[in-house]
Amino acid sequence: MRSGKTQAIIEALEPLAVENSFELVDVELVGSARNPLLRVLLDRPHVPDGPSLDDIASASSWINSCLDALDPVKGAYTLEVSSPGIDRPLRTLEHFKRFVGERAHVATAPQTAHGGRAKWTGLLAGVEGTEVLLEVDGAVARLEFSQIRKANLLGAIDFTKGSNTSGKES
């Protein structure tokens, strides 16, 4: 569940990301009240290796301009713009659909826990309507998207190939 402030930042940045050929993966406001950090995660799904350092540097310019106008954090804060990395957050239903077959960790709101369980790790099996299907221990859990607090891929490094993978079998 996103705070109103974080959601407002997402809504302001998302169209600019598309306009600049990026995908806005996620926005996080972390740190303390005295030392806040605003993290903006961008990807370029149409580019095999994702955004380059130059891409991220150029994106920082339009992100800064937007945030200056929006003024989402009172006082000073640190802006961090980066790619999502191998433990990529999953924020939208489209993200869940795109990464079917990948291993993920999903946390649901405690009040909606299934049988007392609010944390799930398994294989993304699909999306049906507004439910995310996650294969866990041989069974498929149906998790209502609106009840998902946080989700991310479980990245893995395949040292035998010398490359990063996100846990999908080759």
Describe the structure.
- By secondary structure, the protein is of the alpha+beta class.
- The chain has 2 domains: 4-82, RimP-like superfamily, N-terminal (GMP Synthetase, Chain A, domain 3, 2-Layer Sandwich), CATH 3.30.300; 93-157, SH3 type barrels (Roll).
- Helices cover 24% and strands 36% of the residues.
- It contains 3 helices and 10 strands.
- The protein has helices at 4-19, 53-70, 93-98, and strands at residues 23-31, 36-43, 78-82, 103-108, 119-128, 131-136, 139-144, 148-153, 156-158, 163-165.
- The chain has a 5-stranded antiparallel β-sheet with strand order 7-6-5-4-8. A 3-stranded mixed β-sheet has the order 1-2-3, with helices on one face.
- The mean pLDDT is 89.
Quick description:
This protein is an alpha+beta fold.
Low-confidence stretches: none
Span between termini? 34 Å
- Rg to the nearest angstrom? 17 Å
Number of domains: 2
Biggest beta sheet summary? 5 strands, antiparallel
CATH architecture of the largest domain: 2-Layer Sandwich
Q: Which CATH C-level class of the largest domain is it?
A: Alpha Beta
- Give me the CATH fold name of the largest domain: GMP Synthetase, Chain A, domain 3
List how many beta strands DSSP finds. 10
Shape field: globular
State the fourth-level CATH superfamily of the largest domain.
RimP-like superfamily, N-terminal
SSE pattern: HEEHEHEEEEEEE
Strand order of the largest sheet: 7-6-5-4-8
Q: Please state the average pLDDT score.
A: 89
Kindly estimate the percentage of residues that lie in beta strands according to DSSP: 35-45%
